[in-house]
Amino acid sequence: MLFRCRWPAKTKDLSVALSRTPRDRSLTYGLVESLGQRIVSGAFTVQAFPTEGELSRQHGTSRSVTREAVKMLTAKGLLQARPRQGTRVTPEAQWNLLDPDVLRWLLERKFSLQLLAEFTEMRLAVEPAAAALAARRADREAIERIRAGLQRMMAAGEGEDEPVTADIAFHTAVLAATGNRFFAQLDPLINTALQISIRFSNRIKGRLAGIACHAGVLDAITVGDAAGAERAMRALIEEVLALIDAAEASATGSRRAARR
Q1: Where are the alpha helices (DSSP H) in the chain?
Q2: To bridge 217 with a disulfide, which of 24, 32, 88, 232 should be the other Cys (CB 3.0-4.6 Å)?
């Protein structure tokens, strides 16, 4: 008996996906970036979100590229498609703030101390626990990655490395050292928001001010002191929160003085 393979019903969709070129993917991501920034900045608060055809004409993209970009933005919670009603922008409360792109667009839209404070509060719930786990589980290789991050921070203080990427390398190495896949997958989220947070704190305290606190985290992890690693990381993040609170108080005072 002759055996015949049966392709699934969506063979056409599969063939289209396989035939997409790197250029198509680049155009898709470019359109996602452009539309995502516009959505978050409120460009479609008054005007309706364009149809697929209008988007293709406006951006010079094919229907398949446009359709894929809209799907990606829908997955991020920014858009919602309804039968006979078209595609519309969803309320901000429905946006996926854990998506690194959405968080970056929000932070870049207009610097918000409130949003930065909320993210730092989330870090306070996650990173001290991650440091404690790293102290219990990190092997020599994981500890060396954390140490390398600290050394890069020290080099950045001397102008020999980029301070933001060096600081991020330290924090993401701690997440990876937990050996916990869920903590490790927070890397893109932490990476995205720290780019704003570190610039904020460095602008106030300077590049070298946080190195001693980071060294305390590394020292505790190195000797397997879970409680000490947790305390050191908590103190580091609480200091950032204190800076944000002080900046908010200053901004509030300035606004009140301007109204008088």
Answers
A1: 11-19, 22-40, 52-59, 63-75, 100-109, 113-137, 140-157, 163-177, 181-184, 187-205, 211-222, 226-259
A2: 232
